[in-house]
Amino acid sequence: MTSLRLTFTICLCIVLCTLTGCILVGPKYHKPAATEEPLPSSYKEIPAHYKNSEGWDIAQPRDAMLRGEWWRVFHDPDLNALEEQLNINNQNIKEFFENFMQARAIIAETNAQLYPTLTANASWTKSRTPPLNPITTILSTLEISWAPDVWGKVRNALRSAQYSAQLSAADLENEKLTEQATLATLYFQIRGQDTLQKLFNDTIVAFEKALAFNQVQFETGITDRISVVEAQNTLQNAEASATNIGVARAQFEHAIAVLLGRVASNFSIPVRTLDRSPPRIPVGVPSQLLERRPDIAAAERAMASANAQIGQAYAAYFPEFNLSSDAGFTSRHFSNLFDTNNRTWSIGPSASETIFDAGLRTATVHQFIGTYNADLAAYRQTVLTGFQQVEDALAEIRLYSKQLREQRDAEKSAQEFVTLEMGRFQTGLDPYIDVVTAQTTLLTDQQNVITVEVLQMTSAVSLVEALGGGWDVSELPTPSQVSKWPTHEESAIQQ
Predict the structure, then answer these.
(1) Could you state, in order of their start, the residue ranges of all structural domains in the chain?
(2) What are the pLDDT digits (tens) for 464-478?
(3) What is the pLDDT of residue 9?
(4) CATH architecture of 25-116+149-322+358-491
(5) pTM of this prediction?
């Protein structure tokens, strides 16, 4: 009889193992369309679609796309050095990396549910019930239990965990891109402030000479006191504005220190003027955007994870099976504990099925369907936002290019205005207030030129960020890769 039961149990195990490998309830995942309308063949805001967009152009679609360290396209050694420090020391990036490590650990936790649980027990008791003598009992057992994943509940959970880990990996790459782009933007803003500082320093020197000239003119009786006061006031305003420039620069510098994981008090960036123009950035075609932005990849993996959760919920409609057995030894003395006649064992399968749950399983399925539909909407919204950001950046650079050309023309006119007005003042035709007006106009136009130059550079950074930097979806780790055990360095407690 015992042999028959054992044979039946073994056969049942084989059947359940076979079923476990082929039954997976729930909907199959198919990547949905990214938008509800066809994608365009090219971006609307590229300069080729507009007249009078000279001064800046994009790389042609056939040109190689950015890869890896995208900031090197700006050919700035100082920026390269800062970006390398950021990738190592940025605390936000470290936080997202640890979130990725947590997601990988959840995969291992879920995967463990596919296998039997083995438990060892040992006990020693001594009892006495009058009028009997004391009784000693020694028990040693090895217990095995296993719930076969017949309907794929655990395997769907495993898939969901793997997709979530991929999502976390994409989030990590998106955070890297965000921090890198923020650093580049702050860097070019600092260079813009340095350029403004040089402009005001040079202007102050010129205004000091103008004040000295008017002082001499006044002392010799050629002009009156008002010219001296006007020149002095113009100089004082320029000095105040020059001082104010230091506020923004200091704040930008402190922000970069934080990005690099440095204490702001111990960090500084040497002064250097902005001496570069926006590079030619390979934009590619709109369909490539879906493969290049890590936030789009993360949104797509969220859908895949939600789809697997629907399968988990469907598995609750089917019966659950469990196989358990134990074997061991029991004796009153240690000396003969492992004798053959002291062996004990038991084995047996069990099954359970929920008959009534007041709609709990149906509600759970509906919950995860709602989660999937929400993730689908979030995915498409992410795609739409991505296209918006690319078009915004393209429009900014194109229009800033035109504005910069116009602003430089205005600067030339203002320079001529100063030269002509100074000549009229020196010949006595116009009062010095007219010279002040011309000087103020020139200074404003010069500031505007620098401002637009900085905007061009930061918009180029925004364009690179909108395009996904140098990342590609092929770099996203596969489910098998995220399922690997982390290295000792990855799992070590940080100090």
Answers:
(1) 25-116+149-322+358-491
(2) 999 999 999 999 999
(3) 52
(4) Up-down Bundle (1.20)
(5) 0.87
Amino acid code (one letter) for 451: T
Q: What are phi and psi of 347, to 5 degrees?
A: -155, 145
Give tens-digit pLDDT for 288-344. 999 999 999 999 999 999 999 999 898 888 888 888 877 766 666 656 656 666 667
User: What contacts 417, CB < 8 A, 6 or more positions away?
Assistant: 438, 441, 442
Question: Mean pLDDT for the chain?
Answer: 86
Is the bond preceding residue 134 a cis peptide, omega within 30 degrees?
A: no
Tell me whether residue 101 is exposed, middle or buried, using C-beta atoms within 10 angstroms of its C-beta: 0 to 12, 13 to 18, 19 or more: middle
Tokens of 455: 């905007």
